[in-house]
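We modelled the chain as a single entity of 641 amino acids. Its sequence is:
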Amino acid sequence: MKDAAGFTGAVLALLLTAAPILGAAPAAPPTSNTTRWVNGGIAVDLAVEPLSSSTTPGPLYAGETVRIRFTLTDATKAPLTALSPGAWVDPAQNPGTPTSESACTSRIATFVGGGTLSDPALNLNSYVVVTMNDDASLSVLDPVGGFGGSRLLTMIPLTATAEDWVLNSDQTRLYVALRPNGEVAVIDTAAWTQTGVFHIGRSPYHLALEPGGRRLWVLEPVGFGGVTAVDLATSEAAEVPVGLGPHRLAFSGDGAKAYVTNTGDSTVSIIDARTLHEIRRLPTGRSPDAVAVSALARAAYVVSSGDGTVTVIDTEHDTVSATLKAEPGLGEIRFAPGGRFGFLLNPQRDLVHVIDAAAQRIVQTGKVDSEPFQVVFSDTIAYIRHRKSADILMVPLGKIGGEGEPLPVGDFPGGRTAVGPSWFGPADSLVQVPGMSAMLVANPADRTIYFYKEGMAAPMGELESRPRAPRAVLAVDRSLRERSPGVYETTAILPSAGLFDLAFFLPAPRLVHCFPLRVEPKPGTAPPSSARQVAIEPIFEGHLTAGIPATLRARLTDRATGQPITGTADVTVTIVATGTNWSFHQAATAKDDGMYEVPFQVPAAGVYYVYFTSPSLGLSVKGKPTLVLAAAKGGASPGGS
């Protein structure tokens, strides 16, 4: 996986290299949504297909969710695998005229260079950040192009506050537990809309997808039973026989079995994941309430907080192979990448244990502070969150495992405010950034997502989610990924109607090409207005001072008729600080008589460019700013010019 930030250096270096592109055949005129381009024996087949339509080719419409697929083959028609292509979509600079390779190279270099003013209409090498909020909603944020201010793409209202969530393997569906309603919402991550709901009928608290993705397992916090398996192909739900809850579960390495803890009767149920029948029920320590499986060791580790034991179960024979002794108050257990070392937390005693699955014993213990309760891994570091501190503990995975040795630790500030246990449920509040040695940290008390890059002393940036508090965070990969040999895909929502270039770049072998792409107006809607046809009257009253909330307004009218343009849902305000990387993006609220407004504040004294943008009206940040504002630090300043 990759993202625009990780892509930048290599792409720019290759683009600026004066390497000739020989033997390139021009792209065939697009027939519906498929195009072929051949360069030096390498064929690149582009297909842009609506997710909601049949297989019959047809026009592509503005606002439609599409699958974008590149199929790469060599002269022998063999697939080209394990590559890292990039792609961008932006309005054609010379509609009707094919974009030359040199012009296409120049445009891609501009996109990769970054900055708000060089953002393409669609970036197909990125990721989006999703937050689980405290107010029965999910926020979808765009971190690409820089952190700072609001980068809200859309918001998904829910019928109740979310408790847990899980992504399917290809990241096209997000399942969200709505505990108060007894439901699980199904979210389409291409269109970011709710497309369905599973009615569980009780209180879904924790979700898990079995390996292979056939069933979604739904756990409830209390009572007998309390485990439901939903067949995602048929939507049929079946209760799974287990003991007294609450429950947690983990799957065997091959996905054939589920190990479900029964806290209320101090047992673990071993379930055949194919038939949903209980194979065996084994006794554990007192109050088992965490479980993890090491596929490497072929063992399930059941953690009992009541007596501080860890029951080790052989997943091939479903027998107890060992019992590890720690101390009461144990909490979460998770295994680091590779499956050998497990991290076992004790928030009551402020301890972190390291289990060596090869030796089946605890080999290291570290005394920490502030109630460690959650551990998440990058490729090289274990990140541990505390209930009574905003600091995030870091343990380098390459330096653990020495029996009896001190646990190597470092930390960084995960915000300004300690969060407290009431904010969090079972969903992770830290997540690795796709393709990067970096983490996203949700701090609901600060109402902010922090971006931390490994090796730094503090976070490098942040995403505001005000006024909502992010209780959990996900990173959904939007880059082109190899779905089958030589086939690279992603999904996107098409921009406004018009003629576009779909710029394609492959680092090695070096290929650069801009495919023509036509997007039609959505049926039943008028063609989009151009920027020339929309008159924008910005209104800013008073003085702008750094750190002081302000309100920006604008009246939009049709130049031809003089009538106000009302009810446009995609009007957004973008504010860019000159000379810095700070930017602000916020959807404007439509008022009466063509008026749109947005609250904002700037962080420091300086000059700020303001843009009112709207894909449906043809307004973007490509042209002259709508308004230029000067902000003072503590004193009066001109309101704008």
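As a brief sanity check on the tokenised model: The two ends are 44 Å apart (CA to CA). Confidence is low (pLDDT under 50) at residues 1-9, 18-32, 145-150, 635-641.
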